[in-house]
Structure formats: C-alpha cells, structure tokens
Amino acid sequence: MKLISTLILIILASTCNTPVEKKTDKKEAIPVQVNTQDGLERAYFSSGCFWCVEEIYESVVGVQEAISGYSGGTTENPTYRNHSDHAEANEIIYDPKIVSFKTLVDVYFASQNIEQVNGQGPDIGESYRSIIFYQNQEQKKIIEDKIAALTNDGFKVAAEVKAFEKFWIAEDYHQDYAKLHPNQGYIQGVSIPRWRKFASKMPDVIKPTVSH
C-alpha cells in the first residue's frame, strides 16, 4: 500500500510540473462586408503614410476616390494625435467593372517596400505598419495567393492580413493632401518619388491625365 501511495505522489508531482498547453478561445474576426453603393465598391489598405497611399490609388484607372483615415485597431473615434493601436489607412472607392480587387492588391504591393516591418520609407512605427484588409473569403484568397507568389519569389512579406471591421475617416486637412500641397517638403521628397517608383512598375493602370 505504501508503495502504491508513493507512486501516486510521484505521478501527481510530475503532472504538476508538466507544462500545460494553454487553450485559446480567440477566433478569427468576422470581416465586415461594405455594401456596394451606386455600383462602386470599397477596399481598405494600410501602407505607411496615408498621404502617399491616397495619391497612388487616386492615380489608378477605375478608382474614383481614396480617403485617408485609420483602421486596424480598437480605439473608438481615433484622431491624428491619438489613434492608439490603429494604423493610418485608406478607403479606396472603385468601380469593379473597370478595376478588380486583385489589381488593387497588385498596386498595393507594387507601391511599397514589401519587406519593411512597421513602416514605409522614413515613416517608422506601428501607426505606419502595413495591413491589407479583406471583407470576404474571396478577397482573402486573392491576398493569400498574392503573398504566396511573392514569398515564392523570395520576399519576406511584412504586411498583416486582417478582417476588415471599421474605417475611421481622418481630419479634413489630411484629405487630398498631396494634391493640395504639391510643393510641401514631404510630398516632394517622399510621396512623389514613391509614386514615380510605383508608376514605373505598373504604367498600364495609371490614368492618362496623371503625371509627376
């Protein structure tokens, strides 16, 4: 009996010292699908400074407008001075009959440093991290297929892939910033060179009226 009791104690002791795998109830977020309005759809991307991204997408054929804002976090009513865990993001309003979501994804990766973590160019930090948002499983597959192709080409893709939940529009003075301030130092030194580099990679998608 004493031997049995000793064995039981040894088993219990070894069990207590064995790391227990933690169970996580965290589930993949359910993406929010934004309704088509007047034949136009919306896509959401974070890729560094939203001034740069806005200018890039507004130059693409089929894109009606790009709006600067914040997404990817949990903070309610974010502002430029306090957007906490959100990243600078852009809402892309486009005509799917003219330009596909797949092309917008191609534009996304062609217009950034694919491997830069938490930033783009001189803009460093989580506020400038790359996030590509999906609203449904079809979009998610398009994104994953593109990332797989880039990975096969040897890139270490830094962009997060997240279910879209909410987009917060930034302050008025951020909208059309590059267009309204073409001679501003950042626009001249960062935005325009970034746009030119993108345009050289995908000249066929650029509106004929746009140039720098």
TrEMBL record:
Residues 43-187 form the Peptide methionine sulphoxide reductase MsrA domain. Its EC number is 1.8.4.11. The keyword Hydrolase does not apply. GO terms for molecular function: L-methionine:thioredoxin-disulfide S-oxidoreductase activity; peptide-methionine (S)-S-oxide reductase activity. Keywords: Oxidoreductase. Gene3D superfamilies: Peptide methionine sulphoxide reductase MsrA (3.30.1060.10). Belongs to the MsrA Met sulfoxide reductase family. This is Peptide methionine sulfoxide reductase MsrA. It comes from Nonlabens arenilitoris. The lineage of its organism: Bacteria, Pseudomonadati, Bacteroidota, Flavobacteriia, Flavobacteriales.
